[in-house]
Structures are given as C-alpha cells and as structure tokens.
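Subject: design request, 379 residues
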C-alpha cells in the first residue's frame, strides 16, 4: 500500500504546485504594463498575436527615436499618469524625443493609433462595465469599458476636427474611437484602452473592434510598430544609439577593424623567416680559448701563442718577408721589445709559473700596442 499512497501524494503535491503557478500567472496586475512582451493581464501580447494571425508584421521598438518606415502603422499606448506630464505628440511645451518623432512621422503622411489606458490596472478592471458602440453605418458591437472613460481622453489640439469611427451608444460618453488628420497623416485615438489588454481582449467583441480599427489604418500584411517608449518602457541606449542605428553599426565595424589591425601588426608579410642559429663573435672565441687554457694550466703555451702573433706583427711592420728567421726580426727590435718577445717565445710550462706567464704575455701586449712602422725599429 505504501507505493500507491506515495504516488498519490506526489501527484497531489504536483497539482498544488501547478495550480499555484497558474494562479500567480493569472492574477490581476496592480500597475499596468501595456507591453507586447507582457503575458500578464495588463499586457498586449494577445493583441500582438491577434495581429500576427491576421497577417500583419508586428514590430516592437522601445527606443526614444523609433525606426519608422513609409507605410508603417505606429501604435503608442499612453498611461493616464504619464499623459499628465507628456501629452501625445507635439502638444506639450517641451515633448520628449519619442513624441517629436511620432509627430513628425504622422505629419509627413504616416498613420498612428493612440491607445489611452489607466495606470491603475487593478482599479480599472474592478470598475469595468459592459457597453455598446456603433459606427456610422449603424453596426453595433458589445465591448468593455472603464467607468470613468472621460478622464482618460487624450487631447488633439494640433490635429484636425475628430471624426467618430465608433461611438458609445450612451451619448454622454462621446466617441469610443475617433480619427483626426495631422499634417498629411492620420491619427486615431481609442480613449479607453482597457478592452485591448490581455484580460479583456477575448471578452465581448473587443477583439473585433480592435481589428476593425487596425484594418482601417493599415493594409493587409503591413507593418505594425509598437512604440513603447511613450509609456516609459524605454530601451537603454548609449550616445551612438540615440544618433541612429547607422552609428551603432559604424561602432562595431570600427571595433572589428581595430581587432584586424591588432592581429595584422603581429604577422610578418611575405615569405616565412628561416630561423638562423646564433653565431658567436671573435671575442667569445678568444674568451673560450683563454678559459680553456686557464683550466688546463697552459699559461706557457698561451704566452708562446701571443709571442708568435706579436712576432708576425713585428715582421710585417719591419717590412720583412713572412719567411724571415726569428733571429733577424729580434735583431731589428729595441732591447726592451726584444727581451719581452723573446721571453714569451721561450716560455715553457715546466719552467714558468702561470702567474709569470700571464705577466710576460701582458707586458708584451702592452709594448706591441705602441708599435708602428716608425717606433718598432731599434735606434
């Protein structure tokens, strides 16, 4: 029995966990986040998916300078508390960059859909009521609205006279969806955006009225750009990002170029180098021979080698032939030079100590350093 009881307990705990997750995910938001990436009740992810299924290309742009193309429909959501300081487009004394960008886009022939929504989503949801709207042709739809819809109406002081696309059947509420010209473009306003949220889009005929509004503004298959910087969902950008996308591209290209240059500086052009063994000079050879002779106590031999070298040097300075006998060369030298050279030539290991041999060699080298053709001859 332990096995079935344990399995049933695990299944029960699992169901509780799943229920808690769904309950947390589906609970009402207190503060609205009307973003197309927000799957919670106040988000617009369901609206974006509805547009995709209807054939539109949905683009999210969170920059202060959104990238808008000719033929785009830009959707901007305005929160009630945000609108108090920054009304839509160019109506504020010093509007933010995003509103300047949208205003210029519409004036040049673009189309925009402005949706007003209440920042207190939980309060608005609890105060929501069912209502009816009708268009100019007498068609009636059932939708959801916020009870205090008049307080959310954004103004269009710079736009033309608004024309109703959909009106509340309760006359005192005014227009539910209205359009106005701005420059060469068109601006459409939805005064109560509660119906476009994830929580209410699937209720009543809210999805139908939203699709009808978008279809009036955008051709099938066109781009619908959500400019979410209008309600504060701004993508952090550096200085180059505010200049434009081309500046960011140039930045990365320069960085790549710097890496290529850094790599190229460490590479030799042309054929590969052939490694050559290091060769020692004459000084290293002399030092090596001297060290070998010193270890072998061959001071006499070293003195004789120096004597023979100096003898050849004296023979050349005296102008004698290389085969001239040693006695003839010695005879032509001065007494001091002759004695120094003779002592080195006659040095023997057994007869001369190491110290004495070094002294004889040093003395001869000191005298040989002063030899010239004029000073080497005896007086």
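Subject: RE: design request

Done. Sequence follows.
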């Amino acid at each position: 029995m332990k096995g079935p009881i344990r399995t049933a307990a695990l299944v029960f705990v699992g169901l509780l966990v799943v229920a808690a997750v769904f309950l947390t995910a589906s609970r009402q938001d207190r503060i609205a986040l009307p973003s197309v990436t927000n799957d919670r009740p106040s988000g617009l992810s369901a609206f974006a998916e509805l547009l995709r299924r209807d054939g539109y290309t949905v683009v999210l742009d969170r920059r202060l300078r959104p990238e808008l193309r000719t033929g785009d429909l830009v959707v901007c959501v305005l929160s009630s508390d945000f609108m108090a300081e920054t009304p839509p487009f160019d109506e504020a004394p010093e509007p933010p960059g995003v509103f300047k960008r949208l205003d210029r886009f519409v004036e040049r022939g673009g189309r925009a859909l402005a949706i007003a929504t209440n920042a207190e989503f939980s309060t608005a949801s609890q105060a929501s009521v069912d209502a009816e709207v009708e268009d100019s042709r007498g068609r009636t739809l059932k939708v959801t609205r916020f009870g205090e819809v008049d307080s959310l109406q954004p103004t269009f002081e710079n736009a033309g006279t608004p024309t109703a696309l959909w009106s509340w059947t309760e006359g005192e509420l005014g227009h539910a969806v209205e359009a106005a010209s701005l420059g060469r473009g068109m601006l459409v306003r939805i005064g109560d955006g509660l119906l476009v949220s994830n929580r209410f889009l699937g209720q009543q005929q809210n999805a139908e009225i939203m699709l009808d509004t978008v279809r009036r503004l955008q051709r099938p298959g066109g781009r619908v750009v959500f400019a979410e910087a209008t309600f504060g969902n701004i993508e952090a950008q550096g200085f180059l990002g505010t200049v434009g996308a081309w500046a960011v591209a140039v930045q990365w290209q320069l960085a790549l170029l710097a890496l290529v240059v850094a790599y190229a500086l460490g590479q030799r052009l042309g054929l590969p180098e052939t490694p050559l063994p290091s060769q020692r000079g004459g000084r290293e050879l002399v030092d090596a021979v001297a060290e070998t002779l010193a270890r072998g106590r061959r001071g006499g031999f070293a003195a004789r080698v120096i004597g023979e070298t100096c003898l050849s040097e004296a023979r050349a300075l005296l102008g004698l032939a290389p085969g001239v006998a040693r006695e003839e060369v010695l005879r032509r030298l001065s007494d001091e030079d002759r004695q120094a050279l003779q002592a080195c030539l006659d040095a023997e290991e057994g007869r001369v100590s190491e110290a004495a041999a070094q002294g004889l060699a040093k003395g001869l080298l000191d005298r040989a350093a002063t030899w010239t053709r004029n000073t080497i001859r005896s007086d």
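The chain has two domains: 27-247, 285-365.
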